[in-house]
Amino acid sequence: MRIAIVTETFVPATDGICTRLANFVVQLKEIGHEVIVISPDLGISDYKGVPVYGLETVTFPLYGSRPWGLPSRKVKSIFKKFKPDVVHAVNPISLASSAVHYANKLNIPLITSYHTHLPNYLDHYNMSLFKPVLWDYIRFWHTKSDVNITVSQSLMDELNDEMIPTHGVLPRGIDIEGRHPEYFDQELYNELTDNNPNNKLLVYVGRLAPEKDIDHLRAIFDE
Questions:
Q1: Helix (H, G, I), strand (E, B) or coil at 156
Q2: Which one of 81, 102, 153, 173 has the largest count of C-beta atoms within 10 Å of its C-beta?
Q3: Full-prediction pTM beyond 0.90?
């Protein structure tokens, strides 16, 4: 099967979507599918044998930690050249909205997936008033696909409540090669616990961004 994945973010950016997609495309390739990725241009044209088409980017003031792609007619020309059997639009907001538009226009079967709870982000940027508008925008793109999926049951319930039919959950996996007890480092553990191994050690791995609610840890520590 020929699969075109169009996403708002991809490696070498580092976030949950990138991690998921990086593993996903490699596994699809390993089982015999032909896969391409269309994403904002972050300086790569290939990821472990999977072609990556990087399109023009811009940076937004409120979210300057990484560049974003814009809707682009180039998506249509890439589809016409690659002739995908199915298109997967990942979190269509900007660039990936072009995948929805042109998949519909070219009558290509389309999957959309919802990964990031963007309406909640508005709370952290004092823009909660725009939540209904953002839900309308999300609904517009996610209801144009043949199948819409998400990554957790709670998100699926909320999408259905927002009148966005969602057909399944693609659950998170565990990297049992990169995350394994064999990597345990007693010296590092002693350092992180200040040589008090009976203390609880809490480690956060992720982006330092307001919407991650990391500040809530302070109240937990105070208790």
A1: helix
A2: 102
A3: no
